[in-house]
Amino acid sequence: MPTLDGTTTLDPVTGPTSREPHAEFMQIWEEGYVSNHISFENMHVPGLFIVDGAPLRQDDGKLDRVKILGYIEATMGSGANFRLRLQRSALGLTPPAWVPDDDFDLSRHVLFADTVEEPATADLRRLAGAYDGVMSLRHPLWRMRVTELSDGDVAIGMVMHHASLDGLSGMKMFSSICQKTPDAPLAAPTDPFAGIRPASAWQLPRLAFTQWRARQPDGKAAWASYWSKPLLRRARRVAARITLPLRYGRGGAAARELSLPPIHSAYRKVDASQVGRRARALGGTVSDLQVAAIIGAWPGEERIVRLRFPVSHHSADAPHVRNHVRDMAVTGDADADLEVTVRSVHDQVADRDAVFAGKPVPGFPIGYSTLLPWVSRPQYFCGGEVSAIIPFPASLGRDQLAAAGIMYNGSLFIGANMPVALDVDATVGRIYEGMTGLEDQTRS
């Protein structure tokens, strides 16, 4: 749990246990996600739950919006992590911090679609809420879209911002808004920051020092920690924060169009145990197999390619770090036999220094892969069972192929993004075939 000071902590559900002004400071890589308008928009990460719609409806068959809003208010609206907004520091002396939104309004974060969508033909990104606009930096960075589907299910779209979470912390957040049984009692809505004021821009430097000092075991360690980072680098960061208002919108719409071209998405559901057996038979892990399948599915002219994927560095020694991953890259031949690529990826991950000896990873950069575990049993949203969770990866705007896999209830759900000029459905079908060894019936 993120540390507030030497003795108090922030529980992601119940909130802080101190009456001090609350501030949770960003790390350097998180700060980069809000450093300009393109990075900020690019790191809007959409996802999608498909939920049994019967418990979400009234007797007349219409969506029970009051019930759904009440559920969201009692879960997300009452969760500490969903009530935090961005606050920048006075004179750029510290990184930005997450502070309570003292003007929280649930209506800003929940949208209901006016039309019923066909599951087979609906734009998945629209269902997820990816086209609902750029979120405001003055309020918590999340949004939901609720859409009726013609088969009776309900699509619960969710957009989160990567500055507030990574894959692992995101899965924990998703668990906090679902329940283990359809009839589990729902706690009354609460304000986790009731009576606790947000830290002001001028209070952040003091709070940053207090929190940093509390994490140092003694004065000697504090001295060593401070001087471990060059003063010039610190000064440059302060200068960058001071000049941020002049740089934030640089390039305007033209730069945005160049950096964030239109993309589209598709997904497949596979049997997780089957994929696990196939991965072991091919000499790797499920993550190795997913990376190899993505490389093998690449349709471009470039055949020696490079793919990034995250390595988690979450640790009990750093509970204040909510977004703690580092990307690494592997290379592969898109025309190689899948078993060869799986073993190659496994070896590259296992002993990176021996494979590359500090040299750049070769190959044309195509994109990104991530694989995340969620839970092994059914989850329920507002009484309806979650039948599918469809992920779309947080990747660079100009990535050519990015895919994310989530393990849930015995299944692996794989969602992929590609530029609109490329056939994402055919590509994700080839990923499915690589991971299962079966023909993709969706395309046949």
Automatic annotation (TrEMBL):
Signal peptide: none annotated. Pfam families: WS_DGAT_cat. Residues 67-191 form the O-acyltransferase WSD1-like N-terminal domain. This is Wax ester/triacylglycerol synthase family O-acyltransferase.
